Amino acid sequence: MDPRYEMVIGLEVHAQVNVKSKLFSASPTDFGAEPNTQANEIDMGMPGVLPVLNRDVVDAAIKLGLGIKARINRTSVFSRKNYFYPDLPKGYQISQFDLPIVEHGTLTIDLDDGSSRDIGVTRIHIEEDAGKSVHDFGDEKHSHVDLNRAGVPLVEIVSEPDMRTAEEAGAYMKKMRAIVRFIDVCDGNMEQGSMRCDANVSVRLKGVETLGTRCEIKNLNSIRNVMRAIDFEANRQIAIIEHGGEVEQQTRLWDAAKSETRAMRSKEDAHDYRYFPDPDLLPLKLTEERIEAAKAAMPELPDEMKERFIKEYTLSAYDASVLTLSRAGAHYFEALVDGKRDAKKCVNWMTVELFGALNKEGLDIHDSPISPDHLGELVDLIEDATISGKIAKTVFEEMWTSGKAPKTIVEEKGLVQITDSSMLEGIVDKLIEGNPENSELFRSGNDRILGWFVGQVMKETQGKANPQMVNEILRGRLRP
């Protein structure tokens, strides 16, 4: 990106609320059901039916507002957002406009350099989802409408335009996903569409206060795609400006296969939707008791847990941030440490080996075939010198595929580390005797040759020799 410019980024996150029924009807919200099997008369906008607000969705919005230190409005209003599209059977969407349930929050993002920034959250409002258009571009070129999602409850989280890089936008998404998961408002699964993001992007010369013309990018179904789309769109706008053109306010679609955005339609403003209060729904009034009850039910939030991990386990800010990206990951870590193990060593095994294996298989930590007890047992076997770190990785792989306990694997495969000094001394003496040239190289000051000797001993013992003991024996025998 041209260093003379800066991005101005605001994100709109739609999170599907974890409830069993829709926002205004009793239809189920199960993912993956057969098309048009989860929509009733209310969802389809049939005449003579009235919406009934799902109180669990309201409680979820209150919790989310508390989670970002926002103001919970004691009175909010549902409005009709009017537009016409095949998957919107009523011809309008029930949402909130000028009086949302939550306003003026703050989300603290953690950046890779260890710093943090506060990003403003303008508002959170409750709304229903639309259906889904499915396009068949075969010979007959049919389009189909699936109304299973029509009426599914969403909370839309609108940020201030406070982000300046794609990395900051990615950090915002990670933290927001962590919060909605921690308080069980949403499962945060972007691939299944239960959490979606639209990015508003504009560019301006550094030092200029006036905002540029923004474009909204839709169809962002992963944090990686959010970052890629923002970078592409910023560079596209800069190229237009540098060639003497003007950026047109548009809604654009992200094409992940081609790694580019393309125009969908001119960007609408609020007046285009002709918002007005929904006459079928009374204003939503919240009592102090209801808000206090939500506060009492709030779990420990990611930032609070991060600070506790730093103090209690002496972790770096980075390690604590990684562990608190999900409540399940944080709980796994605490079960792994179990009040007795070295926290840093546990972090290393979790973030490198376990998270690496999970990512490779596309699994969540809930689905890990290795329990905290078994991974802790593996750490213990390294600590008491039963096995070496190198052998531990082999044991880990077997644990992953077989589900067996590490002690069982070590016993079955005869992987116990060799700590018999007399045995190791015999191997070392034979090795030195057979390689006098390398022995002289070490004695003449070439310390790097020691690694060759260690490697030969490990090869001879099939990786079972205790590396520390081998190093000590070699240095003792090779010294002039």
Main sheet: strand order = 2-6-7-10-1-11-12-13-14
> Helical stretch count?
15
Q: Average pLDDT across residues?
A: 90
Structural class: alpha+beta
Tell me the β content: 15-25%
Radius of gyration of CA atoms, rounded to a whole number: 29 Å
Characterize the largest beta sheet: strand count, sense, and whether it forms a barrel. Answer: 9 strands, mixed
Question: Which spans have pLDDT < 50 for at least 5 consecutive residues?
Answer: none
- The count of DSSP E runs of length 2 or more, i.e. the number of strands, is 16
How far apart are the termini?
Answer: 59 Å
Helicity level: 25-40%
Q: How many domains would you count in the coordinates?
A: 3
Q: Could you say which overall geometry the principal axes of the C-alpha atoms support? A: elongated
